Amino acid sequence: MTEAEWLASQDIGAMLEATEPSQRQLRLIAAAAARLVWCFLQQEESRRAIELSERAADGGVGYRELDLASGAAESVFQRLLGVDEEGFLATSASIASYASNPDLTKQSVGEDVLLLLEDVLEEGPELAAALLRDIVGNHFRPFRLAPAWRTPLVLSLARAAYEERLQPEGELTTARLGVLADALEEAGCNDADLLAHLRSPGPHVRGCRAIDALLGKESSG
Known about the structure:
Strand content: under 5%
Number of domains: 2
Shape: globular
Mean pLDDT: 92
Radius of gyration: 17 Å
Number of strands: 0
Order of helices and strands: HHHHHHHHHHHH
Largest sheet: none
């Protein structure tokens, strides 16, 4: 897959094959996808599973607790089968269950989460691809940060953008990211791709490659 194809693609399988997301990135991609169908997640078990999955991505939840939460979300999905005539509630519940699976793989995220998202939302393929690009980043042109750019102000703004998301959507606020881009420029940042990404309309979610790079969060392995 070429860079132009990566930037334009909505083929989730091909995009995942073209890159190597870390376990953390896979978990945040899956959780962000589940956030997109939050309005269809009527049971607390489903919502709790997503929240725990996000915490697990940062090491705040262990395997056992996440496995139990995923199992509870799976039970919700099973109860909805045959009851939900339109299928939106059941499919969304299944996304929550799969997204909180403690043993995520590229295949499971692609087939069990992102492809199911396309069954619920009309713009699902476009949004799924956008989530991948936001979290994995453009692997043809990775961000290269100079240590001098990571000033106390820049790091403070990056942490605030990461932690203080819109709820329940889970998206980062574009206003905060715009202020962060301005602070980076003032610190001497000349990475046009990094600045453009922060100033783009998004979607930007937890795991956004630009924020992760600034905060030094794990992005491989």
